[in-house]
Backbone:
């Protein structure tokens, strides 16, 4: 039997999928509002209603998760903002890894690799940008100065285009890239069942695996 280690607890996986669902609904309904030829689809306003319902889910889900999982959340944020020489090494080795499937120069990674740190950073920054600009457009449409509203639409659009591109990269790397293919590595299991094989942990997150192996020895 394949030996496995726990990577994400249930609460983290639930947040990931709820947030992903809300984001995809926001992305699709946002696209309908953003692209003029799709305007007819927004005519009876169902897309605006779905956009607002999904926005509530998008904002409330992390607000419930964070206080209930304080230690993991603070740890995750700290990891995302802590960079060292292995992150620089990762950035240097990334083009050969992603384009030539050559992992020889990849330095060992912690629980979060450098690419995941960048993704987390984007999610945190743009999550706040979406929420603030969206809430102002929603609740202050008739009271805020027009210049402020214009800035909010612009910020919302920049966040939409940037995170939309990042989402496709994230999905491609998670499910289709030859080095990451879930059937090859079992990486899919980490967000599905919360576990990955020891082989995967050792090869993709060597530093993290060392820590759990040491912890297991002590206990
Ligand atoms: C986080 C909470 C969010 C809130 C509160 C929010 C709220 C809003 C509101 C009130 C509007 C104006 C809709 C209208 O014209 O009736 C809007 C537009 C839009 N939203 Fe969001 N939104 C959020 C997140 C997102 C996300 C995550 C995306 C995409 C990934 C997105 C993409 C868009 C786009 C593209 C538009 C059209 C902007 C334009 O007219 O140029 N929104 N949003």
Residues:
């Amino acid at each position: 039997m394949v030996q496995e280690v726990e990577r994400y607890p249930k609460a983290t996986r639930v947040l990931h999928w709820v947030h992903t669902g809300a984001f995809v609904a926001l992305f699709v309904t946002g696209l309908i509002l953003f692209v003029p030829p799709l305007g007819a689809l927004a005519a009876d306003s169902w897309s605006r209603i779905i956009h607002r319902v999904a926005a509530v889910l998008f904002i409330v889900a992390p607000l419930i998760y964070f206080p209930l999982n304080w230690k993991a959340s603070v740890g995750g944020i700290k990891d995302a903002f802590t960079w060292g020489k292995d992150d620089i090494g990762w950035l240097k080795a990334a083009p050969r890894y992603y384009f030539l499937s050559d992992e020889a120069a990849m330095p060992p990674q912690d629980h979060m690799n450098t690419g995941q740190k960048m993704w987390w950073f984007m999610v945190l920054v743009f999550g706040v940008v979406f929420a603030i600009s969206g809430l102002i457009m929603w609740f202050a449409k008739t009271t805020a100065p027009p210049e402020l509203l214009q800035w909010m639409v612009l910020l919302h659009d920049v966040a939409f285009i940037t995170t939309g591109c990042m989402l496709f990269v994230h999905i491609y790397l998670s499910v289709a890239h030859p080095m990451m293919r879930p059937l090859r590595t079992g990486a899919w299991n980490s967000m599905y069942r919360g576990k990955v094989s020891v082989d995967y942990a050792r090869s993709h997150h060597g530093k993290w695996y060392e820590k759990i192996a040491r912890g297991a020895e002590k206990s």
User: Anything to note?
Assistant: The chain has one domain: 4-218. The two ends are 23 Å apart (CA to CA).
